[in-house]
Amino acid sequence: MQIRQFFKTVASASRVAAAVEANRRPNRADLRTLGIAEDAFSGINLR
Questions:
Q1: Average pLDDT score, the chain
Q2: pLDDT per residue as tens digits for the range 10-20
Q3: How far apart are CA 20 and CA 2, in angstroms?
């Protein structure tokens, strides 16, 4: 894995985690970077 991709993945994971903790829907691009289908994620109850 290239170092740039590594940091992009870590940054996306951080943003997704922060969104979930704040009861917000994560950014589509961040979910895509992590390999998470937006449709699958939308089925998760955040509250």
A1: 91
A2: 999 999 999 99
A3: 27
